[in-house]
Design a protein that fits this description.
This protein has about 60 residues and is mainly α. Helices cover about 45% and strands about 0% of the residues. It has one helix and no strands. The chain is elongated.
Length: about 60
């Protein structure tokens, strides 16, 4: 019978998962912050389109 040595402990695994999730959260928040800072072009005038009343159908 062969014995295997378990070199990792459960405490270090929990700490590693917490650190990785914190780094992921920081990256996501950073991306949201920088995308919010970008000034995307917007139309200068409002687009209005009048729809005639003849096109509406009443369905009961």
């Amino acid at each position: 019978m062969q014995f295997n040595k378990n070199t990792s402990s459960s405490r270090t695994n929990v700490i590693a998962i917490i650190i990785k999730s914190m780094i992921g959260l920081i990256v996501i928040l950073g991306l949201v912050f920088f995308i919010n800072k970008v000034d995307f072009p917007a139309p200068k005038k409002e687009i209005e389109k009048t729809i005639p009343n003849e096109n509406f159908k009443i369905v009961k």
